[in-house]
User: What shape does this take?
Amino acid sequence: MIKSMTGFGKSVCELSTKRITIELKSLNSKQLDINTRIPGLYREKDLAIRNEISQRLQRGKIDVTFYVESMMPDKISQVNEEVISTYHQQLKNLADKLGLADNTDFLRIIMPLPDTLKSPQAELDDTEWKAVHKSLIEALDQLNNFRVQEGVSMQKDVTERNESIAALLSQVEPFEEQRTEKIRSRIKDSLAELGTNGNIDENRFEQELIYYIEKLDISEEKVRLSNHLQYFVETLNEEGPVGKKLGFISQEIGREINTLGSKANDANIQRLVVKMKDDLEKIKEQILNIL
Assistant: This one.
């Protein structure tokens, strides 16, 4: 069962002091490309977040965003008693020296001075991280489910187009049989125009005709194309990421279709080849988004 690389997942982590919303968005990409937008409090877990995503999503352009709604701030400023006491002692000594009144409002003077308040760095505790990590897993599971649902419709589409190419290939054979007679008639008509009046060696004519037809023979291309189409279906049903593998198979399918068209030498077969190419291009568009 294939998966799409496109997906969206969302989870909400409710804590006593905050509400954290985790959103994940995935788009197609040749490799795994993770972009995180998370608050500073969770930066220490950035590597753990990336490892979790890489194990579960494997490939794609992934955007990870944490939205935090706090009931109270992570950093609460505290009064720096030691600094204030030092300021007070110095000001009091200066006031005594200058003979100023004892009722001077030292606190009003001191508080605007530097370092009277300190803001301790908030630390992420294990309990909070476990809750956030659980929500991250829920968002990843939701995104994966989205990918699976998208994959079902994509698999249906590429399977139908693969079957369409196989059906068009089966229509080549009748025209291939007619092609031999058309080539024979065309060559004889050309000889008649040259004025041979039928004076030709029939054995030599047949030998040259066989040699010419062998150059235009498409039997091998038909067999290889049929095998590639079957291999494509088998790969679709494999477990795990198959997008890159399907891309390689589609290239081989395209190569055989192109050779078929170049050797066809028949308008009816060429029309079938054009239809095959159209279906193949649609398949390639879908493969770009298959995990």
In short: The first helix runs from residue 46 to 57. The mean pLDDT is 86. Residues 78-118 form one domain.
